[in-house]
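Hello K.,

You asked for the raw outputs rather than the summary table, so here they are, unedited. I folded two proteins back to back in the same session to keep the settings identical. This is the first:
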Amino acid sequence: MTARAAEAAVARLSPDEVRAAVERIGTADLVVGLATSGPIPALAAVAAAVRAGLDAHFSGQAAAVVHVDQAPAEATTAAVAAAFGDLRVVPVTPAGAGDDELDWAGAVRSVLTVGRMLGARATVMLNADLSSMTAEWLRGLAAPVLKEDYGLVLPLYRRYRYDGTLTQALVLLVAAIFILVNFMMDLMYAWLDPRIRYR
């Protein structure tokens, strides 16, 4: 993406705030993107995990947080700035903001655009609703890009032994009952109405 294309993308996001924040920051080695749509119940846990990950694994790297808010509210922006403390935060309001539903594609595009404007060597997109996030998530997603020159890192989700067991058992039971009831109805039709014969 050329500098002109990046400028055009920012013009669609929220030109004055984004451009001013990017100019204040200058450059960043690592950009952490958070997408929200209104209030964030897990914000404190996510911010703590990001700050701990940056302190533990990327202390020598310049970092910035790009907050893409689909349903912008001054309280949400203030809460994000307070939660991240001295970390540099770039607030972005994407085109078409105001919807209650989060547009992930637009949020990722916004974070990547701002990351490119900041000259980031690595960009990590995190879900702001995951309170179970730890500092190791940031290390696992950003370290291969920054330290080993990987081009793309995707998370691998591990299922535990009994994950989904209840759901699978219920689906199997309901499906078996449905098939059995249909079979019994077919037999009853033949028994109740002698004109019906199966060949």
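The second followed immediately with the same parameters:
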Amino acid sequence: MADVKVQSNVALPVSRRGRQKQDVGALYPFADMRVGDCFIISGKKDIYKARNAAQTWVKDHGDAWKFSTRELTGTPIYGEDGKATGEVYPAETFGVWRVMRTVDAPAASAPIEPTPVLTVNPEHQS
């Protein structure tokens, strides 16, 4: 057996095994988004990456964050003034929106059904 010596005070290098965790906030503008804001991505591979990054962001930053993705291919493009520009988004174009969590959404205005009231005839009480 080789002569092996125990040593102290040797710094442990950073592991190079596995994937290193990326800061998804550096890749996508999640921190700057308010409810209703979105950013546009082109390409199916990139939308998968953005969707995974959004899930990681929610996991790391809490349930106050929620995101939704939709394909925009063929959807009209609107200008800053809110009017259609006459152009449409090209193929494989996707949007990532920050959306309101269901628990934060205002309640639907459904009609309130009256509660039935049970009345007792005093003559029939024992």
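Strands lie at 38-42, 67-71, 76-78, 84-88, 93-98.

Happy to rerun anything if the numbers look odd on your end.

Regards,
P.
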